[in-house]
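Need a sequence for this fold. Nothing fancy.
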């Protein structure tokens, strides 16, 4: 990605972030009592929340890792809090607008307006805290989900294949060692024939991940046909070459616009991520070129991180495509946005003869919080017929 495009993108993100923070700051300040000490304490605390995430990112190389980690956690949680405070403030201001035209507020509110605003601030703060707490607990308790598919056997000698799928692990600051260990435990317990990672194994520059040995537990994964992965957009954001080298060091076979024929039983295709078109000097390969390397007389499974252009994929002899990327929004109400962007934001769909499945992911981006779904591992039992 060109430096100018990156600066423009970052400027837009920071502008939206700043506007949202300022809106909440102004409304909250107006609700506080006229007490100098209270308002100064509020301003200082709010500024701390505001600068924590992006400030830590900018200063990562010049501050101790413990301080960096603390502020990333604080800032990540604030990103989720910002969303829900914003929704509460918008709801409150909408009710004020309705009251302006229809006078819906009772007298005890209009006669005690300052107290009513303070009460609304306290209630919304408590509500946001409860939402974040539930989302945090939800994120810390991954689930295993199962699905069964039947696809043509063709010339394969296999009658059954058990896949363990995980996407969007996002190894980084806000994924705990306990959660990574749980990933290994849950997958190995299923005794899959093959383990597939559908992109975004890493969340950022591998430097932090390597220093803290976050990926080492992945070496303990075990499956008959091994562990295979593709690149996601975050591997490119953190540095594709470094990410590729690190993933391979974890005993994971990386498919980067390439095709493997597994045990002469099925084809496994791994597409390079769409973001490679922006970060690389060349575009990813056309699907037809990847199929040229496959055995047309065997079933074909494909991983593609971002579930775009499903109708185009369904024109090819792909039996199953596995994707991630969307997180299905991760935080309410972003699930409505991802559902509008992607034909499949989460779950299963069949188009022509191609089965598609999009996972909501095991890890997350930003806040260590999920309010839409639990982190998941998908166990897919394929019966070849």
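Here you go.
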């Amino acid at each position: 990605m060109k430096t100018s495009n990156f600066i423009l993108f970052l400027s837009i993100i920071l502008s939206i972030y700043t506007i949202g923070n300022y809106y909440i700051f102004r409304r909250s300040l107006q609700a506080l009592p006229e007490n100098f000490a209270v308002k100064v304490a509020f301003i200082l605390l709010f500024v701390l929340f505001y600068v924590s995430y992006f400030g830590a990112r900018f200063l990562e190389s010049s501050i101790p890792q413990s301080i960096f980690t603390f502020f990333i956690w604080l800032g990540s949680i604030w990103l989720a809090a910002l969303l829900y405070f914003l929704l509460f403030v918008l709801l409150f201001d909408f009710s004020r607008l309705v009251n302006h035209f229809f006078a819906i507020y009772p007298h005890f509110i209009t006669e005690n307006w300052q107290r009513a605003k303070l009460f609304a601030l306290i209630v919304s703060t408590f509500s946001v805290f409860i939402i974040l707490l539930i989302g945090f607990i939800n994120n810390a308790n991954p689930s295993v989900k199962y699905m069964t598919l039947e696809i043509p056997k063709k010339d394969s000698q296999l009658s059954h294949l058990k896949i363990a799928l995980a996407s969007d692990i996002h190894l980084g600051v806000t994924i705990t060692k306990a959660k990574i260990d749980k990933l290994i435990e849950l997958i190995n317990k299923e005794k899959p024939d093959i383990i597939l990672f559908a992109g975004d194994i890493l969340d950022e520059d591998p430097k932090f991940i390597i220093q803290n040995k976050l990926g080492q537990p992945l070496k303990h994964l075990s499956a008959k046909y091994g562990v295979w992965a593709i690149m996601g957009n975050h591997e490119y954001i953190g540095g594709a070459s470094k990410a590729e080298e690190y993933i391979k060091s974890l005993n994971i076979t990386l498919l980067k616009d390439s095709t493997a024929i597994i045990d002469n039983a099925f084809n496994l295709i791994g597409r390079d991520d769409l973001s490679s078109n922006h970060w690389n000097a060349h575009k990813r390969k056309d699907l037809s070129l990847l199929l040229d390397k496959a055995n047309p007389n065997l079933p074909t499974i494909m991983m593609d991180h971002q579930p775009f252009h499903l109708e185009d994929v369904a024109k090819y002899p792909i039996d199953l495509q596995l994707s991630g990327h969307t997180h299905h929004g991760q935080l309410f109400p972003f699930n409505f946005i991802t559902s509008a962007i992607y034909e499949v934001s989460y779950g299963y769909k069949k188009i022509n003869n191609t089965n598609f499945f999009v996972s909501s992911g095991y890890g997350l981006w930003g806040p260590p919080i999920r309010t839409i779904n639990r982190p998941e591992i998908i166990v897919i039992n394929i019966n070849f017929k």
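For context: The chain has two domains: 3-138, 143-384.
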